C-alpha cells in the first residue's frame, strides 16, 4: 500500500534506547510483535514530532490510543483550488483531537503543511458538497459553517454542539454558496482591525479551540 502522507521533516527527538529494552518489547534479537513499541525506533532512535509519552511507539499504536479518546466534532474543508491551508488545518485538527477531517472537492491536497500529522489523523474525501451533506445528515451532525457573510452570528456568543462538523471555506473566496445553504448556522470570528478576513488555517484553529473551551474546559 502506497504511503501518501506528508514527509516526516523533524530534527528533534530521542536517540536509540539505552540499556535493556522494556520487558514488553522483547529483545533486539527477538522483538515482541505484539508490543506497542517499534523495534526499529528502539534501535535507531525516534525523531518524530510526537509527544514524549509516544516516543518509540508504533504508529498504529499511537492512532489506536488517539481513537480511544477523540473528541466528538469533525472538521471539513472545501478544496476547489488546492488551498495550501489544508495541511495546516489537518495539523491543527490533530492537535485538538478532532474525530475526522473531511476534504470536499479535489482529492489531492498539499500535505506538506500537515507535518506528517495526517498519519495520525483520519482524513476522508467527499467529491461534492451534496455528498458531504448527505454524509452529515446520515449521522445527524449539524454543519457549523465559519465565514463572514451577511447574517452570520458571532462564534464567541454561540453554543457549539458537542457533536457537529465545523466547515471551512477556501482562502479568499470563502465558502461556496452550496455549503452556506447546507449549514445549520454560519458563524463569524469577531475581528477588531482593518482587514476583512483572517487566514483560513488561523480561523480553523480559533474555531477548534473555541469548541475545546466549551466542551472540555467548561466541563471541569
Automatic annotation (TrEMBL):
Region (Disordered): 1-40
Keywords assigned by UniProt, alphabetized: Methyltransferase, Transferase
InterPro entries: Alpha/beta_knot_MTases (IPR029028), rRNA_Methyltransferase (IPR051259), SpoU_MeTrfase (IPR001537), tRNA_m1G_MTases_N (IPR029026)
Domain tRNA/rRNA methyltransferase SpoU type: 74-209
Tree of life domain: Bacteria
SUPFAM superfamilies for this protein: alpha/beta knot
Listed GO biological process terms: methylation; RNA processing
Gene Ontology MF, one: RNA methyltransferase activity
PANTHER family documented for this protein: RRNA METHYLTRANSFERASE 3, RRNA METHYLTRANSFERASE 3, MITOCHONDRIAL
Protein name: rRNA methylase
The organism of origin for this protein: Rhodoluna lacicola
